[in-house]
Write a structure and sequence with these properties.
- The complex is a heterodimer of chains A (83) and B (233).
- Chain A has helices at residues 19-30, 53-68, and strands at 2-12, 42-50, 74-82.
- The longest helix of chain A is centred in the C-terminal third of the chain and has 16 residues, at 53-68.
- Chain A is of the alpha+beta class and 83 residues long.
- The relative contact order of chain A is 0.36.
- By secondary structure, chain B is an alpha/beta fold.
- Chain B has a single domain, classed as Class I glutamine amidotransferase (GATase) domain (Rossmann fold).
- Helices cover 22% and strands 25% of the residues of chain B.
- Chain B contains five helices and eleven strands, in the order βαββαβαββββαβββα.
- Classes of the chains: A alpha+beta (83), B alpha/beta (233).
- The interface between A and B is medium-sized, with 13 and 21 residues.
């Protein structure tokens, strides 16, 4: 077994409203930045034991499906690297 | 008859809910979220609050607690009556026992106010609450915007899962009265023996609190459980 780092990035589906993102974008506008779009997501980094990178990616994906992301409103992306 | 009220780390309406039930002369039992034994109760309430500090997503972590696995099994095998209030509603959608999800309020604010609700659909678990009936109940939430994916809202209505809607004081639907951006002004959803609402019936148990419609709703539920009577934990 080796250790792998997995980064799970959870993002709201494009059709979902993001009040926190809108408020943040509004403040950036107020600060003088011409931001066209801003969406807030979630960055989850975890270390998992697996026999290879493929298994680690599968495990992280499963965790995302079961808990880290809500399929009703979010999508996710998994990136794995060896430690 | 005994009703269990679950306490998760971060629940804060559990004691109020227990007291509200006691005022209706029903036996109550406090259930710790790590316990998976529901043998002593005929129905369960998931109370309001901020389980796990709303970390990850409101209700998401509580939905994986041992008590929820037990509740799911009893709902599927024995139609255990379950009522979710506020955070309890969020936990039930996260656990998949109810459809959809609850998103942060559209305007980005926490909303604490009185709301008028209209019963959309009657339920055998709430005898006497007929379609069109109005209830006045308080809301207090930051994440109460009911959402289902595009194209699936009609199914919620067709399946009889749309239970309560936010309406104006004359009982009419309008967008202005919607306190959080909920799809179709939905405030409550039901599926089988499970029902949930964002407003707090346990805070409206007497006229001197502003309304006794919470008492009506909880009394109806207790009566419904008594009549259904099929569940034997």
């Amino acid at each position: 077994m080796a250790a792998f780092e997995a980064v799970v990035t959870v993002t709201l589906k494009p059709e979902i409203l993001d009040p926190a993102g809108e408020a943040t974008q509004g403040v950036l506008h107020h600060m003088g930045y011409a931001v066209r779009d801003l969406r807030i997501g979630r960055h989850i980094r975890l270390t998992v034991e697996a026999k290879d990178a493929e298994e680690a990616e599968g495990l992280a994906g499963q965790m995302a499906e079961e808990l880290l992301a809500n399929p009703v409103m979010e999508t996710f992306r998994v990136e794995v690297s060896a430690l | 008859m005994r009703i269990g009220v679950v306490t998760f780390p971060g629940s804060n309406c559990d004691t109020d809910t227990l007291e509200a039930l006691e005022s209706l002369d029903v036996g109550v039992e406090s259930i710790w979220y790590q316990d998976a034994d529901l043998a002593q109760v005929d129905g369960v309430i998931l109370p309001g609050g901020f389980s796990y500090g709303d970390y990850l997503r409101s209700g998401a972590l509580a939905a994986k607690a041992p008590v929820m696995a037990a509740i799911r099994a009893q709902v599927e095998e024995g139609a255990l009556p379950v009522l979710g209030i506020c955070n309890g509603f969020q936990i039930l959608t996260e656990s998949g026992l109810l459809p959809g999800t609850l998103r942060p309020n559209r305007h980005g604010e926490f909303r604490c106010d009185w709301q008028t609700l209209r019963v959309v659909e009657a339920s055998p678990f709430f005898p006497g609450l007929m379609p069109g009936e109005l209830l006045r109940l308080p809301i207090a939430h930051g994440e109460g915007a009911f959402y289902v994916p595009p194209g699936t809202l009609a199914t919620v209505f067709q399946q009889g899962e749309a239970w309560l809607q936010y309406v104006d004081e004359s009982g009419l639907l309008n967008a202005v009265i919607n306190p959080n951006g909920s799809m179709a002004n939905l405030a409550g959803i039901k599926r089988g023996s499970v029902a949930a609402l964002m407003p707090h019936p346990e805070r409206a148990m007497a006229d001197y609190l502003g309304s006794s419609d919470g008492r009506r709703l909880l009394s109806a539920w207790l009566k419904g459980i008594g009549q259904e009577g099929s569940y034997a934990g």
